[in-house]
Specification:
The chain is α/β, with parallel strands linked by helices. The protein has one domain: Rossmann fold. The protein is built from eight helices and ten strands. Helix 1 crosses helix 4, helix 2 packs parallel to helix 4 and helix 4 packs parallel to helix 5. It is globular, with a radius of gyration of 18 Å. 48% of the residues are buried. The structure holds calcium ion (CA) (2 copies).
Length: 269
């Protein structure tokens, strides 16, 4: 059984339990459905959505999630359009206005499915992946919560199915370059950045904290046009990352991969 078949079985099982009255709390899908107001959504509106994914309970990864969440709010993302899938109990540090759940493969597939109903070609979706990553047979893999993970190619497939006008993918786990590189031939507009290439381990926060914080720093606006773009915040984060990990250049070999676009702004101008 492949990974998606396993996820489909898990979702079916959850649906059966729910229909039998065994689940007192609303499912992740129904909570996302309600937060995004999918039934009454006006597709002509240009919206920004975010999906944060972290499978690890360590403080450093939870701090990454919180930093990304705060930065997205500062950029003008609305709380009810930020979905956070993070380890065991993200509701401890994510406000109720945002939907949160455990970062299992089943929940990730459900979140992507719900987003695909809300999102269309005039919307932006930002994905942030953090936690532990590893590699097997030259494939980059992100550890999810519990006994699950996702391969870079499967993740790229989920992003493709969501169908945003612009997809921005930020990943900082070890071997995360494999995730960024998946988007080089993406059919839509995509910018994918990673803290390291597909062949090395790295330190996540030395990249991601400056990445998320740079959006609101005037010094990161390199061309002085009044706003910090994705490439500008990437360049600033890469510089800080290299400085923090010096002299280990392999661990700081961050990547900036694009498809059909060179750079973009995210959030509200
Ligand atoms: Ca729209
Ligand atoms: Ca700028």
């Amino acid at each position: 059984m492949n990974r998606f078949s396993k996820a489909a079985v898990a979702i079916t099982l959850a649906s059966l339990l729910a229909s039998a009255g065994c689940s007192p709390s609303p499912s992740l899908e129904s909570r996302i459905d309600s937060a995004l107001q999918i039934q009454s959504i006006e597709h002509s509106k240009k919206e920004s959505y975010a999906l944060i994914i972290n499978g690890d309970p360590s403080k450093i990864h939870i701090a990454n999630v919180s930093t990304a969440y705060s930065a997205l709010l500062k950029l003008g993302f609305e709380k009810d359009r930020i979905i956070v899938l993070s380890e065991k109990s993200p509701q401890r540090y994510i406000p109720k206005d945002s939907v949160s759940g455990q970062a299992t493969l089943g929940n990730l597939v459900s979140a992507a499915k719900e987003l695909s109903k809300a999102v269309d070609g005039n919307d932006t979706v930002v994905f942030y992946l953090t936690g532990h990553g590893y590699t097997s047979a030259d494939c980059s893999i992100l550890q999810l919560y519990g006994d699950s993970d996702i391969y870079s190619a499967d993740f790229c497939g989920l992003v493709k199915n969501i169908g945003a006008g612009l997809s921005v993918i930020v990943s900082d786990q070890c071997y995360s370059g494999g995730f960024a590189e998946e988007f080089a031939n993406f059919p839509g507009d995509a910018i994918a950045v990673s803290s390291v290439d597909a062949r090395h381990e790295t330190s996540c926060s030395t990249f991601s904290i400056p990445f998320w914080n740079s959006f609101s720093e005037s010094y990161a606006d390199l061309n002085k046009d009044g706003a910090v773009s994705v490439e500008e915040t990437f360049l600033n984060a890469s510089k800080e990352h290299r400085k923090a990990l010096y002299p280990n250049e392999d661990c700081a070999s961050s990547e900036y991969v694009t498809s059909h676009v060179d750079d973009a702004f995210i959030g509200k101008p």
